Amino acid sequence: MVVGIFWLLNNTGAFEFDFGEMMSRGWPIIIIALGVWMLAGRNGKNKITMSATVSGAVAEKMSHGVGEIELSPEAIDSHGLEIRMGAGEVKLDLRQTRLEPTENSVTVKVGLGDVRIEVPKDVPVAVDAKTGGGDLHLLGRESDGFAARLDFKDPGYDSAPRKLHLSIRVGLGDVRVRRT
Q: Torsion over CA of 58, 60, 64 and 68, rounded to 10 degrees?
């Protein structure tokens, strides 16, 4: 929002600034301030830990502003699962999750923070992951830097009756998808 306000003021001529200079000098301060804000809020009430199910499957959509989401769902319903986090960490363990005999969709979107996902060994997986800045580690494949993108699909995914599709978007942070 702050960058947008400065940009608008610059475009209207009400205030002049060099966007490149501001980013080169200002982004570390923004990152530090967000880190302090996140640490100050980590008193337990910003953490969602969920292993139970709602009507046999985890709720379709979850949103959380700042904090941590740890989720080990027993099942994912046919509408899939969508998790949104403003800033923080998402830990998703799907190793024991009962999946539908179709393509099971999981979407995770995080503005600032990390995503950690554990997937089952016996289910074919397709992953498409993007980060504005950070590292991607997807089942033995890696990419890093700004605007990093990595796609992965297990052999036999397209013809498998039961499969898992992960779509992961992170503004600034790291993504790790593992089979264990």
A: 40
